Amino acid sequence: MLARRGLSVSMSAAASHPQRHGLVALSSLHSTTTISTVAIPTATLRHFSASAAGAWCSASADASSSTPPAAAASTPCMATLAAYYSKHQARPPIPSQQHPVFGTIPAEVKMVEVGPRDGLQNEQRKVGVNEKIELINRLAAAGLRVIEAGSFVSPRWVPQMAQTASVLRGISLYKNVSYPVLTPNLKGFEEAVKSGAKEVSIFGAASDTFSRKNINRSLEESLTQYESLAHRIIEADLPMRGYISCCLGCPYEGPIDPQRVAYVAKRLFDFGCHEIALGDTTGVGHPASTAAMLRAVLETGIPPQNIAVHFHDTYGQALANILTSLQMGIGIVDSSVGGLGGCPYSPGATGNVASEDVLYMLQGLGIETHVDLNKLIDTGRFIFGVLGKPTRSRVA
Questions:
Q1: Mean pLDDT for the chain overall
Q2: Of 95, 188, 292, 378, which one is least surrounded by beta carbons within 10 A?
Q3: According to DSSP H, which parts of the chain are helical?
Q4: What is the pLDDT of residues 122-160, one digit of tens each?
Q5: Which one has a higher pLDDT value, 89 or 25?
Q6: Spatial separation of the C-alpha atoms in residues 322 and 137, rounded to whole Å
Q7: Nearest to 175, CA basis, from 140, 210, 206, 201
């Protein structure tokens, strides 16, 4: 069974009604494929090219075989995709609870700590390797189970991330903690793998102008690049997260159409991303625009358990936006210890919402996170002491 929009679709149902479910059963494509519990989104078969698929699988037909070469090459590729999707994308529905005021909300939320990467990348004061290692170790000790460890980007553009490889090698690897790194291109991905990364992230933007300013490519050009990168990530069998910037507003284009966000989200999900993090990079979103954007994304068929929200707090709306997201079934929330961050390509954007403030609200709602608030507050004070300025968290 493979969940789509919170529903489990059987292989037989997908085979009988592929247009209804947006799925193609593998057994209906190739009689030699015996996978009976996974289906691949129809859109994925359109986006992944035959030449790229052949490169992954390195399959060739024997000249004397009665099997046509194209079928022989594509059969194991469908199996590769199915195995990857089943391992990394398929997730159980988020457990829920009834709140007396806010209705149905998640019973548990996964907090994704982005401070060591998205937070520090915009800080002017250079943070040393040992200080980054201590920050990440403290965050893990506080109970956070997903901690962005850094990014493999050109140090000329983001000098704060220049020593991510050393950081990865130096951190204490806590059991059941993942340390994803951002890999915006093939070179970065290869460096990440050499450094021992076990999970990577790619990113796109819902704004064409922002994409050109950030990576010097149009929105469509960036998606083409990430499709090729996704091939390599799937080949390496590493989990892949997808970020989308400017989901609620762009510093150059203004308000963003929710349908454009939905389009980019679906493309990244079809590429194989196990989570789609929807980012309010400029912090201009409010509950109404957040709800409209999430509704558009959910209507693409991406299950809520594969969607994360990522809010900056420029206009003080981040916690309200997170509450709106919880009410819409989202159970993955990005945040940054102490409110670290900003964006070097988004003029005027302030830091991410503070992890301490998010945790305080979640605890007040009776939502489990497995994170210790006091340890998190101490960690925020540590890193802001390194930076020589007061924490931005209101709770701390």
A1: 83
A2: 95
A3: 11-16, 18-21, 26-29, 42-47, 50-57, 69-88, 129-141, 164-170, 186-194, 208-215, 219-236, 258-271, 287-298, 318-327, 355-364, 373-387
A4: 888 999 999 999 999 999 999 999 999 999 998 888 999
A5: 89
A6: 26
A7: 140
Closest CA to 349 of 213, 222, 239, 189: 213
Q: Which amino acid would we find at residue 345? A: Y
pLDDT tens digit sequence for 188-205: 999 999 999 999 999 889
Residue indicated by tokens 């004061």:
125
The predicted pLDDT at position 351 comes to 80
What six digits make up the tokens of 95?
């457990």
Pair 276, 297: CB distance under 8 Å: yes
Which 3 state secondary structure label does DSSP give 40?
strand
d(CA 247, CA 259): 10
Pair of tokens at residue 167: 């950081």
Helix segments in 272-347, DSSP class H: 287-298, 318-327
Query: Quick check: 304 and 328 in contact, CB under 8 A?
Result: yes
Of the candidates 379, 322, 310, 383, which has an alpha carbon nearest to the alpha carbon of residue 346?
310
Task: Choose among 267, 341, 329: nearest CA to 303.
Answer: 329
3-state helix, strand, coil in the chain (%, to 5): 45, 15, 40
The CA R_g of the chain, rounded to the nearest whole Å, is: 21
Q: How many CB atoms within 10 Å of residue 375?
A: 15
Asked if residue 348 has pLDDT above 70, the reply is no
| Enzyme catalytic residues | 343
